[in-house]
Amino acid sequence: MNPFKYGRVVSADDFCPRPALLKQLTGFIRSGQNVEIQGERRMGKTSLIYESVRQMKRLRMLYVDMLEIKTADDLCKRMVKALISMEQQAGFLERVLKSVSQLRPVVSVDPVTGQPSVSLDAAVRMRPDSIDGLLDLIHSVHKKTPLVVVFDEFQDILNLPDAKATLSILRSRIQFHKDMAYIFAGSVRNQMSEIFTDPESAFFKSAVSVDVGPLDTDAFARFLADKFTLGKRSVDSGLMKRVVEIAESVPGDVQELCGALWETTSYKDAMREANIGAALELIYARESKGYESVLVQLTGQQLKCLAGLARMGGKAPQSSAFVHGIGLTLPASVKKALNRLVQLKIIYRHQGEYKFVNPFLKSWLIWKNY
Ligand SMILES: Nc1ncnc2c1ncn2[C@@H]1O[C@H](COP(=O)(O)OP(=O)(O)O)[C@@H](O)[C@H]1O
Ligand SMILES: [Mg+2]
After folding, report:
1. Residue 44 CA: which ligand is closest?
2. Measuring CA to CA, which of 1, 56, 163, 192 is 20 to 30 A from 303?
3. What distance in angstroms lies between residue 7's CA and the mean position of ligand 2's atoms?
4. What are the tens digits of pLDDT across the range 192-234?
């Protein structure tokens, strides 16, 4: 079986230890300190949270995924569903169903996966002020059996038409729950900053900030090499480092590339750099349709700029070497193209450098000689 996992939460043996971050986060949770977690997509934020809670034993997690929420009703219903699933697992279903009976919750078990799923009456619309009552309900549950509340992809609260009002309701209630930690994780830095560091925001300075960056390269390389060795494939020492480099240290992408290496090699193979090409080609075969649909929405200048970033890196795209290197004349046109590429979420800017959201799109552009 392929030992490399990506595209989902990893924990326990699949989680490459991050002792410093785990210690920090468990410490904050224990003391009821609210935490804001930032980091790019696939860096391991959600996994870090799950693993911290898992290691804390006897602590439960109320996990609310806010990805793509559009209304306060969505938010409230996701909170209710999360609460019902959590209580059901603990055998406390009855006590929570009574409290939310106006939503006519129906709990059913998927016959295939055995996973419980909850449905609520769509005709009952919840408004931002329902959040108050819900948070108090959650807090009363915490008083009986301790829990930590996690709002993941929290930046999507900014999608709500009444985002400002909703944020201030959340904030004003949360500040009364001093003995319970709230975690707000998000992957869009400028939006998370808008929420937590803008003095105008209700959440201004309301949580300590934890940054989830790449894993330590040596530790991660050893962790990955061990998985190959356990599967009776040998790995030479430089290979894993090269994999981490190609996947730009994004743990989810590193694991995807290792997964592809696994699939393109066999039992007892000795793996070396020469195997990386075939692994990348497997990834391209799966993903190139997606890359192509990204490229068709670009203008000629934007495409030149993107190809230039792939070839020359994103540290100084307004230097004359870069501008001329991609066949343009004005830094201003490059700037405009970069802004559009950021807006389309193809690249992002971090610490002054433009980077590809998907490192494999970058290597594919080079491979295709764009
Ligand atoms: N500590 C870790 N050890 C090994 N792989 C990890 C670790 N953290 C993340 N990953 C890899 O990254 C992928 C995405 O992790 P996830 O926690 O969902 O990231 P995020 O929430 O930041 O988007 C996982 O499926 C896994 O492949
Ligand atoms: Mg996540």
Report:
1. 1
2. 192
3. 9
4. 999 999 999 999 999 999 999 999 999 999 999 999 999 999 9
Which pLDDT belongs to residue 93?
84
The reported pTM is: 0.94
Domain locations along the chain: 17-211, 216-295, 297-370
- Between strands 35-38 and 116-119, the pairing is unpaired
What does the DSSP assignment read for 187-214? S-HHHHHHHHT-TTSTTTT-SEEEE--P
Joined together, the tokens standing for residue 326 give: 């991609």
d(CA 65, ligand 2 centre) in Å: 9
User: Which one of 4, 10, 63, 357 would you pick to mutate in the ligand 1 pocket, going by the greatest count of ligand atoms within 8 A of its CB?
Assistant: 10
DSSP classification of residue 216:
P
The CATH number of the domain covering residues in 297-370: 1.10.10
For the cut 80, the answer to whether the pLDDT of residue 277 exceeds it is: yes
Rounded to the nearest angstrom, the distance between the alpha carbon of 51 and the centre of ligand 1 is 11
Q: Cα dist. 97→80, 106, 297, 330 in Å? A: 10, 9, 48, 63
Instruction: Give the ligand at the shortest distance from the Cα of 51.
Output: 1
Q: Report how far residue 351's alpha carbon sits from residue 20's, in angstroms, rounded to the nearest whole number.
A: 22
Instruction: Give residue 252 CA to ligand 1 midpoint distance, Å.
Output: 5
CA–CA gap between residue 227 and residue 344 (Å, rounded): 36
- What is the DSSP-derived secondary structure letter of residue 352? T
Q: Is the pLDDT of residue 74 over 80?
A: yes
Residues with CB under 6 A from ligand 1: 5-10, 15-16, 18, 39, 41-47, 187, 251-252, 255
Length of the chain: 370
Q: Which amino acid is at 110?
A: D
Which atom of ligand 1 is found nearest the CA of 47? 17
Name the class of domain 17-211: alpha beta
